[in-house]
Amino acid sequence: MKHISRTTLIFLGSIVTFTLVVQVLISLGVLSPFWNTILRQGAVMAIVGLGLNLIYGFNGQFSLGQWGFYAIGAYSAADITYRWTNDANSNGLTVLFFTILLVGASILILYRVFGKIRGVDPLSAFAIYLIAAVGLTALAVSIGNLTAPAVNAILKALPTNIANTLVYLLAVIIGGILAAEVSFLFGLPVLTLGSDYFGIATLGFTIIVKVLLDNSDVMFGFVEMKGARGMIGIPKLTSWIWVMLFLILVIVITRNLLHSSYGRAIISVREDEIAAKAMGIDIGHYKTLTFVLGCLFAGLAGGLYAHINGFLHPDSFNFIKSFDPMIIVVFGGLGSVTGTVFAAFAWQLVLEGILRSILPPGFETWRYVVYPLLLLVMMLLKPNGLFGNYEIPYLRQVLPPLKKPATETQTPAAKESL
Amino acid sequence: MMLEVKDLNVYYGAIHALKGVTFHVDKGEIVTLIGANGAGKSTTLNTISGLLRARQGSILFQGEDITRTMPQDIVRKGIVQVPEGRKIFATLSVLENLEMGAYLNKDKAQIQRDLEMVLDRFPRLRERRNQYGGTLSGGEQQMLAIARALMSRPTLLLLDEPSMGLSPILVEQIFEIIQDINQQGTSILLVEQNAQMALSIADRGYVLETGRVVLEGPAQELLHNPMVIEAYLGGHG
């Protein structure tokens, strides 16, 4: 990039400084592992929240499905690293890699084709996508298992640390993309529904994922996931630095998307679908794009979360929990990136950190009395959320000054009326 | 012929909203559809712009069948609708609203020129260019809605009730603007409840009643037609 503006530098400078200061405090032992975990979970919630803010805050689609995609990201990333660290086998990595590659390619190609032949009804399109996805997944399983030994050999030739980190990063990214691809398939028939119905359908998705995870060992034969007993033995590789790097990446992507013409189109769909259509905006396209991107963030966050505690339990992905990101987004301010990030950290720090440490032992449950009250007071005092639609300068959109092209001159009439 | 609508039949579920509507718009004309609430005026416009689908009948635009064309492709061909109730983007600034109008245009320099042209035509919008659309008054919002539609360089402009909720002075201003746009070469299909105003600027008019065209003719003739006066102009001659 040739030109980086001052606000960008200030933003990146301060967030990097913040990250490093916290890291130093962690290394010096000033921040205990307890607070370290809470901070990392805060960053994870911020990523989930940013995904939901895109879908709900900016695009206006009320989604309760983020938690299901978060779970998909968590379990698939965990499975990859689990197989590598416990069985020294990279077949989880290769199988899922080829799955996202082939399914992703088929989605992109079919999307183009359906874009050319206009007016294919969503359900027939959905059926074709689904058949392609299932067939290609079966193909990916065989290719993955075939290539696994070769990948094993390559990874074993690397120093253990580097190999583990590499598998971890790939696992998180693959988990995110897998969640995004599932969200595309799920979104096809569901995004045509109106906003409220869409909310119910996505809530249903979260419940389905939870039930499947409860029975993952029996229904799919993933014995390492241990179904309802919870998956243990996942390497704890998500450090503060990694989680912050992902958060910064997600903030920058969100910001650049929102400031582009895509961003305006996304917002115009929220503002008025009929007007957006009348302007020639393909609203289905933008709803899909936003939903998939939001779910990609949820999936990434899931992968990061799985490697914080090294333990996953289906109960953490209960549908009740799917309201957490919703609360964070509304609390921070719908349509405010700043608000979402702030609220996510505040949420974890207050609920899991401060309240837990100041309430006397045995009274932890009172947290769930205190925080709804906090929410209530908040909604009464600031119904637009903590930040409303305030953004820090970096995230604020600066409109270019209106320039007169040299070829044309202003009409006298217009000048007078100014 | 610019636009030719033949035997259009549109349903909302089981409700038969348009029962064989036929009319046309010639190049450079202002044509108005008048009629009471529920006559099918907005339905007709929404079907032309692709927001609704016709079950029967056809819509030809410059000789090309667009009955089954997607809304975004219809905009690309040069038909733009200013929806009923203005429907501007409330949390986008005036400039951003206008840029959304040029959404399908990829030529940045041309967008900039169009923007200047539109802002010259609506000096009020120039003053308020950085304000949120939602903070504009009703008249300004209507101007913004029309300006936004002009940004996509229409050859046929569909206007749905531009006078809705505006004071008489503003209605006159808006209608002057419509005439002005028409004189610069854009054909206009105007849907109005304010039949008097609509007929006074239109070349021809069609009267819709419960999904059918019951009367058609030159606007001046309709203005003096006893039936129209009785039903829509609220008087006895």
Task: Describe the protein in words.
The complex is a heterodimer of chains A (418) and B (237). Chain A has a domain at 33-321. Chain A contains 16 helices and 2 strands. Chain A has helices spanning 6-28, 33-58, 66-87, 91-116, 122-157, 160-190, 195-214, 216-219, 240-259, 261-271, 273-278, 283-309, 323-332, 337-358, 367-381, 412-417, and strands at 231-232, 311-312. Chain A has a two-stranded antiparallel sheet with strand order 1-2. The model of chain A is unreliable at 403-418 (pLDDT under 50). Helix content of chain B is 38%, strand content 27%. Chain B contains 10 helices and 10 strands. Chain B has a 6-stranded mixed β-sheet, with helices on both faces. Chain B has a 4-stranded antiparallel β-sheet with strand order 2-1-4-5, covered by helices on one side. The radius of gyration of chain B is 17 Å and the shape is globular. Chain A binds chain B through residues 118-119, 261, 264-265, 267-268, 271-272, 274-282, 335, 389, 399, 402-405, 407-408, 410-411, 413-414, 417-418, and chain B through 49-51, 68-76, 80-83, 87-93, 95-96, 99-101, 103-104, 109, 112-113, 115-116, 119-120, 123-124, 126-127, 129-130, 145, 148-149, 152.
Alpha carbon gyration radius of chain B: 17 Å
Order of SSEs of chain B, N→C? EEEHEEHEHHHHEHEHEEHH
Total helical elements of chain B: 10
Q: What overall form of chain A do the CA principal axes indicate?
A: globular
* Structural class by secondary-structure content of chain A: mainly alpha
Calculate the terminal CA-CA distance of chain A, rounded to whole Å. Answer: 39 Å
Largest interface, counted by CB within 8 Å of the partner chain's CB? A-B, 33 and 47 residues
Could you give the order of strands across the largest sheet of chain B?
6-7-8-3-9-10
Low-confidence stretches of chain A: 403-418
Number of strands of chain B: 10
Report the structural category of chain B. alpha/beta
User: Largest beta sheet of chain B, briefly?
Assistant: 6 strands, mixed
**Residues in helix, % of chain B:** 25-40%
Helix content of chain A: over 70%
How much of the residues of chain A is beta strand, in percent?
under 5%
**Largest beta sheet of chain A, briefly?**
2 strands, antiparallel
